[in-house]
Amino acid sequence: MVSKKKKKYSSGEGAQFMTRKAALKKLQLSLKDFRRICILKGIYPREPRNRKRAQKGAGGIKTLYHTKDIKFLLHEPIIWKLRELKVYQQKIRRARATREFGRMRKYLRDYPSINIDHIVKERYPTFVDALRDLDDCLTLCFLFSTFPSLKKVPRNQSMLCRRLTVEFMHAVIAAKALRKVFVSIKGYYYQAEFEGQTITWIVPHHFSFQPQNKDEVDFKIMSTFVEFYTMMLGFVNYKLFHSMNLVYPPQLTAGFSPDSEKDLIDEHAYVAERIAALNISLAKVAGANEVEELPEIDIFQSEDGDPQKLEEAKQEAEKVKKLKTMFKGLKFFINREVPREPLVFIIRCFGGEVSWDRNHFVGATFDESDESIAYQIVDRPSMDKQYLSRYYVQPQWVFDSINARTLLPINKYLMGAVLPPHLSPFVDKIKDQVYMPPEERALKDPDFKPLDDEPSGSDIEEASDEDAEEKNEQESEEDGETALARQYQQEIAEDSPSDDEEDGEDDLDKEKKKLAKEKKKAMAVSSGVPFKENPYQKQIEDKQAFRLREKLVRKKHRNLYKSMKAGQEKRKKEIWLLRKKRRLHDEKVKEEKKAEKRKQKMQAFEAATA
Amino acid sequence: MSVIKKKKHVSKKNKKAWRKYCDIKDVEDFLEDQRLEERIGKFETKPDSELFVVDTAGDEKPEVTDVKPLSLKQKKRALLNQTPKCFEVLLPTSKVQDPNAKRNHVNPVGTKPTALSKLTQKRRFEKGAYVKKVELVRKNKKIALAKKRKAKEIEKTFKKNLWGDELPEVKGIPSTLCDDFVSQEAQLHNVLPEKRLRPKPPPPKTVATRAAIETPHPGVSYNPSYQEHQDLLQEVVQHEEKMMKKEAHLNRVTTKMFSKVTAQDKENQWREEMSAGLPQPHNPATAPSDEETDNEYKAINPPVKNKKKDHKARRKQRERIEERERLKREKIEKKKITDIYKLRKLQSSISAKEKLQAELQAKRTAKRQFISATAVPALNAHKPPVREPDLVDPTQLSGDLRNITTNTNLLRDRFESLQRRGALAASKLMMKKKKRVKSYFKPGHKVTEQDIEKYVQKMKGKKDPKKTVIKK
């Protein structure tokens, strides 16, 4: 018997994939609906290994989907909802065409909405999964919250985005989760940490209106993405608020509720405005305790047992703890020209109190005349009226302080000063073998002390500098003397045994003495020499062990290892070279400065005498 | 003597032959019975009352009572309830059930409000019999609307702990089975196939691994350090140079491959080609001199003559070939001997070559891996745009937050990022094409030069009298 001939592409890669057209046919959906459901359910087109086979022999590049993905979509109850919507759309279209606007309005009112919460749950089975995928969601929501009503975007979407993003910012403030800020040309890069997940997002700069070019971006698709992301962000917000015992949707505390005497026309708007100001802490769930601070990291003896890593982790935790309360008890006043929202958000994230001009935006808590204000954030070259009790700093001081994780000295950030560069905190940590100029190193770790700490600026400082130099000179002289003395002593010490030999100079009884000596030696109890432990012994042994281990590297990886090592050496050398260059340059500059100063002094002296 | 019917051996090879010689009468009878049963109903299922009659009268004959026969009118009235004879044909006679269980229901006559019933209803409505009912309907409508509105609102309040314990329903598994005592397998076993959770293949590698938000280059800071900004600019320059090189290559390979010809040259070429073989006009300068020809026919390509070689020539040729062959062999033999002494050199050259090849191979694989790690996924005939480094113009940098300007479109950035990650197939946005409207004048409305002239003159004519009037 001849078995039935197997049809081509009925198994293997040909059966695994499906073109978009075939998928549309299978699901009985229009392209529009298919796109929508794919975005909502997280189904992506695939790139096959062998395109020719996957396309069943057809040429060109077609959009392919996994057959399993499409089968997965087939079971989605939303598909039926989409078909229902289609009927509704037809009815609306018909009513509009026949100019029966009453009916049209009725259809629009009763237009069924799709509930997609089960999809959120399905795509993100755990909360951490949702947090991990929040980057895109936040960026798009923040972006859409700035949009006016657009043609292809549902009317209330930008409003909803705005609401959700404000809620999320409140959650970040309450959790003190912000870690890094970077102000770029594109917008503000923020990085927060929730449940061990780092979330990075971009918030665009606040410009009044930016027209969107129609032929660059498909608004319909982006709006569908946003539709899913708003749903996801809403549930994430709810969960975050709950974990911090805050009432969701956010409410003002009783103290800030509107006065009962005045009748407000729109109480909801009143509350929403105050919440959007980000300046007031939200109401907590009644009877809930304060959220407990996370306990200190327990030290587990991991299998690697790398104490250095553990120590690093501990230090990091300590730093983060300090960072969280960096602005605690400090009062900030934001001037009119400074972007309000980002700064309020940032300052409140680290425990500071903020206010602004009462007429500028609702939600101001104290006036400019308040004497307890510690810092006023200003972005203009000068001000007419200044208070002595506070520092006038530029906004970059706030950003740089957060990235440095300490309150930086303000002298470089004072009003009208030329600012130091705003460095990115998102530098790759893996690339640690990079040359860092001493200024940057000082910014990165506060323990670092540049070798020749030369303060620059005012005359007073220069004078002190001079004093220091003189001291240095004296010290160096002293150092020279002590060194000489030490050398002398050493020489003496070396010579002494030979001196002893020279003293006992007797030619006659040489042999006898020798014999006696030998006998004595045999009998004598020599004084014990304390076992001197070589301090570097352990290091040497470690090094040897390391070399042995290096030999055990598999042949497969040997070349890679070698190249890695060579690269490390090369980079080390480069860094060393650059440091040396810098040192020489600094010394030269210093010498020149000194010479110039001396010259000036001489001139002044000559002028005085003459 | 009993006659034993001889079994006739027949062929049942074909379907036809099989049918001819196969006795299937019993089967057909059975089926016929079954069909009859279906038509008139099964014997077993019929109730006893239908099959049997309890004989209570006995053998006695019923007494004939004097009953007044029905009048004609009464007879007709009694017939009214019955189905008319003329419609009996339409009634089903078979007891076979309707295969379409959900046949469209047609309302019987009388359920639709007639003109008369409408009138009575109206009368009753005016009387006030329906006031309560109307109010109730209105109230119900209001409640339903409010409910709907509230449901829509709840969707936007997100008041549900999606990742908590209190889940609304475990997907697919019936609530009666959601018990600790029922094993997981048993729970899943009882799920309807269409409600069963389908395994979803993992997302594509590019979607899973590529970061949604790439770490920004430190040079894009609003107030970058000099070095970092220079680095960024350098990156931009390198990218731009690469693009220019690519473009130049494309230009060289396509447009520049063909030599350019001026229009005049083309015309000349065309003329020459088209007039090939045509009799040329007589030109004494180019014409061949008549003196040399002696009116003899001469082909342009004379026929080839098969000139035979003689013995000597053949021998010479053979000898030449043999000599050449011998020399070649000798050379090879010689080389064999010398190669023995060259062995080490050969080996070293081979090893050097191999080393070089291995190096090149490593380089190639590294390059391939790099490309596969960073390449944009090909999901469509269109390719997603290559990521370009952000350019921050030095003139753009003001150094303070107040005068910040931007030249990047964040939305486009996101859109392209999605495409580069493979979450979206890159596509060219199709704009709606504007209809091309051909404009023309109706013949009667055409305005020609003459018309204009006429008009101008007319105006002049009109103006002139005015002027004269003024002069007067």
UniProtKB/TrEMBL annotation, chain A:
GO terms for biological process: maturation of 5.8S rRNA from tricistronic rRNA transcript (SSU-rRNA, 5.8S rRNA, LSU-rRNA); maturation of LSU-rRNA from tricistronic rRNA transcript (SSU-rRNA, 5.8S rRNA, LSU-rRNA). This is Pescadillo homolog. InterPro entries: BRCT_dom (IPR001357), PES (IPR010613). Residues 439-452 have a biased composition (Basic and acidic residues). It comes from the Eukaryota. SMART domains: BRCT. Residues 322-415 form the BRCT domain. Residues 513-522 have a biased composition (Basic residues). GO terms for cellular component: nucleoplasm; PeBoW complex; preribosome, large subunit precursor. Pfam families: BRCT_2, Pescadillo_N. Required for maturation of ribosomal RNAs and formation of the large ribosomal subunit. It comes from Parnassius apollo (Apollo butterfly).
TrEMBL record, chain B:
Residues 264-274 have a biased composition (Basic and acidic residues). Residues 264-322 are annotated as: Disordered. Keywords: Nucleus, Ribosome biogenesis. InterPro entries: Nop53/GLTSCR2. It is found in: Nucleus, Nucleolus; Nucleus, Nucleoplasm. GO terms for biological process: ribosomal large subunit assembly; rRNA processing. Residues 305-318 have a biased composition (Basic residues). It comes from the Eukaryota. One of its GO terms (molecular function) is 5S rRNA binding. Its main location: nucleus. One of its GO terms (cellular component) is nucleoplasm. It holds the Pfam family Nop53. May play a role in ribosome biogenesis. PANTHER family: GLIOMA SUPPRESSOR CANDIDATE REGION GENE 2, RIBOSOME BIOGENESIS PROTEIN NOP53. Belongs to the NOP53 family. This is Ribosome biogenesis protein NOP53. It comes from Parnassius apollo.
